[in-house]
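pinning this so it doesn't scroll away 📌
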Amino acid sequence: MNIEKINTIGELKKAGYHSKSIKDELRDNLIKNIKNKVITFSGIHGYENTVIPELERAILSRHNINLLGLRGQAKTRLARMMVNLLDEYIPVVEGSEINDDPLTPISRYAVELINKKGDDTPILWLHRDERFAEKLATPDVTVADIIGDVDPIKAANLKLSYADDRVIHYGMIPRANRCIFVINELPDLQARIQVALFNILQEGDIQIRGFKLRLPLDMQFIFTANPEDYTNRGSIVTPLKDRIGSQILTHYPDTIETARTITAQEAKLDTRQIERVYVPELAKDLLEQISFEARESEFVDIKSGVSARMSITGFENLLSSAERRALLSGEDKTIVRLSDFIGVIPSITGKVELVYEGEQEGADFVANSLIENAVKTLFPTYFPKIEKLVKENQETPYDDLISWFFQGSGFELLDDFDDDTYKSKLNEILPLDDLIATYQPDIDTRDIYFEKEFILWGLSQFKKLSKYRYSGGLQFQDPYGSYISGL
């Protein structure tokens, strides 16, 4: 259909246009996508077998939808991506405040205009990008905001009585007729405002200051809610929940691979940063494991959740830590070190809600413990497991390394070491080379020094070495050697 040549209702009828509800639009276009193997919700990872099939079933059922999940689970993004299932353009009556369909007008303005001009009534074409409206539910939202109110200025200008329905000023929902309308954090909406949505969802009429208007609005509602809200701040009133067709539960990534894909897609990095800093594969896994540890931590409020944004901003901070170090030492390129994870801490402390025990320990302590726990969890997947109890005279793969520390006075890695100094210091510990050659023979040569540091951190987590953090860097020691030498 050549929309540039269709400017009136008469021309629209000649072109064979048929009115279609927004829910049918979404349904028909989804059916086309499924038949043609087109991915509707591209860029959404980890939901392929859980959330997305449920969302597609809800669209096929023409349901209004409630996306229920913790923060940072792509609820709003899913809602915004539904716009891609709308027809590219739809016709509306020119001058209509509520996007009247030219063939099935519902507002008084559109009905009177069509009665007056007939097939010569002018129309406009509305692009799908303009058919998305969003409102964050806050306690100060009023019925006037979302549904409408009487406008005394309009009444005065038009010299109309308050008994005339032309004095009504439409709120956000009527103005989003034939659009996708999203209400974020629905439980935060006051109960009396939620009640005002009943008729719009089910019967299709609205009431404004005594005016009962039969406005069969054509809407696709999507609500988002956080389970925490049900107990802490408010709830969704039962009759409203009853009118929402499908409630879909979202979730966090199930695997590190999925989490890594999301972080790589969402992190906003400067091109120069990418060229300057190389990130070892283990560093990427370790960063994601921190979020997994946080979601299981006794110090973190599980009900509040740990957003995927923590990994994204943490990745950005990790690269910035390495970049700043390279700039200070005058180097063009550098590799992320495990000690650079100290720069990730501000991304953690601002993203986790602590329980009482966590507050007592302090945010920095919790962040450090999450990093260390992530090292401890990943260590057995790269190197032999360190047993707590070892039989007398039983050899372990780490004996030579522990002996190296026992015979020495300690080992220091300063944060501001340039790359050459950093590598030469780690090269002093010869047993590290044997461990990597034996258990990681196919490792990328650029990853070797990160894994050397990883081994030291891992042994300290299993109490085979002691690790001390001070303002200038890290010190590793044999946990008993210093005590014996003191004796």
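📌 and the second one:
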Amino acid sequence: MDETYIKVKGVWKYLYRAVDKQDKTVDFLLTAKRDMAAAKCFFDKAMGANGDPNKVVIDKSGANNVAMDTINAGRDVSILVRQVKYHNNIVEREHRAIKRLTRPMLNFKSFRSASSVLAGIELMHMIRKGQFEIHGAKAMSFADQFSAMGGVIRPM
């Protein structure tokens, strides 16, 4: 799990992202702040949709560590937290694609539009990685697969 910065109305906002060992996107969340509450919200959202992980690799961010400590406090079997700066290179590599697509946009005008556009970008990356089962996908382009999804991901 890691976060990157996205500019909305001239102010930096935070895109939390998580990927698994197989380079599949687990979840993502755009938040206004980078604090313990935002990190906990992201972890709760990701674990609610995908189940509890055995291990979480995070960077040296104190907010992420405190959020995982809070989550582990209420559990019988705690989630192993590895706080290693360089072990999250997979997710760092994924940030490059997001930055490459959003940089020419210069700036999002609203938080809602940023959330919607980023959800579409994430969905396209997930389709390219083969994370969705779509009938007849082999004969369709990625754009056609995206159109066939028809509203699966809604803005947060």
